[in-house]
Amino acid sequence: MPIDVLQLTPLIAAGDEDLHRNYSVCRWYDLPDRERWLDEHNASIRAVITAGHLGISNEMFRRLPSLGLVAIAGVGYEKVDLDAARERGIRVTNTPDVLTNDVADLAVGLMIATMRQIAAADRYVRDGRWIAGEMDLAARVSGRRYGIVGFGRIGQAVARRLEGFGGSIAYTSRTKKQSPHAFHSTVIDLARESDVLIVTVAAGPATRHLVGRAVLDALGPTGFLINVARGSIIDETELIAALQDRRLAAAGLDVYADEPRVPPALSALPNVTLTPHIGSATVDARLAMARLMLANLDAFYAGHPLPTPVV
Length: 311
Ligand code: 8YV
Description:
Elements: E1 5-7, H1 15-22, E2 25-27, H2 34-41, E3 47-51, H3 58-63, E4 69-73, H4 82-88, E5 91-93, H5 100-115, H6 118-126, E6 145-149, H7 153-162, E7 168-172, E8 182-184, H8 187-192, E9 196-199, H9 213-219, E10 224-227, H10 236-244, E11 250-253, H11 264-267, E12 272-274, H12 283-302
Parallel strand pairs: 1-2, 1-3, 3-4, 4-5, 6-7, 6-9, 7-8, 9-10, 10-11, 11-12
Helix pairs in contact: 1-12, 5-7
Domain D-isomer specific 2-hydroxyacid dehydrogenase catalytic: 40-310
InterPro entries: D-isomer_2-hydroxyacid_DH, D-isomer_2_OHA_DH_cat_dom, D-isomer_DH_NAD-bd, NAD(P)-bd_dom_sf
Domain D-isomer specific 2-hydroxyacid dehydrogenase NAD-binding: 108-279
């Protein structure tokens, strides 16, 4: 039977059953001999399924002459060469909106956990250290100056949550939005006026290392950095140095430069809270992402308009 769909990554949701009921799918990540398989089947693949942070390599693009759709189960699509897709008439879809609240919830949760040292407090109790005395005091979370880098769906959802914390909310984005919150035209200006910098901006060539030494120094030794977007947006080497030198108070990270590998120098630091790219990792979000991804696949094969096209 010809293979319709090449699945580059597991869909961590119930969507797998629907997918395999309606399509002949090859799980790329389970193949013992990928090169041999690709030589035998590459001509029949019309659709590829992948994750937001994985995308599809240009090499894989080239190896699939019949490819018509890259369906992303995720909102980010920086790992897909959109120009190459356009040149070949390959459609690209993603799954926006259905994960916005989950990622925004994690951003605020990571902020609270980082500023109030909740992961360290858990270890403090489990390790029996409370017997010997109280933990060091933490930073207040409410009533601070919150800066949001990137003011799209997720950034605005974070702002809605922060409105309940008192304090001030400001943001930076390519363009000023219709918002009651202060707009800064650069990240460094925003960092200078923030106690907490929360990164939600989309990844791509224009935002690579957007948060580097200058922004970290502008945020300063009493500043906190939270990243739920992509690891590429922060210069990880500069971040580690700033945390080691206490030029930055602490960081809460859900994403990293070379996932799932995290630099030992980062994970050894006491002033970081680390989570394994779980922004959209809720049952509800992943089910909704899988279903929306499937809706795009169904529309593509039926020749109908795609629900959430990128290209
Ligand atoms: C992951 C994400 O891609 O939506 C995104 O861009 O980064 C996450 O949702 C996850 O692996 C789902 O595909």
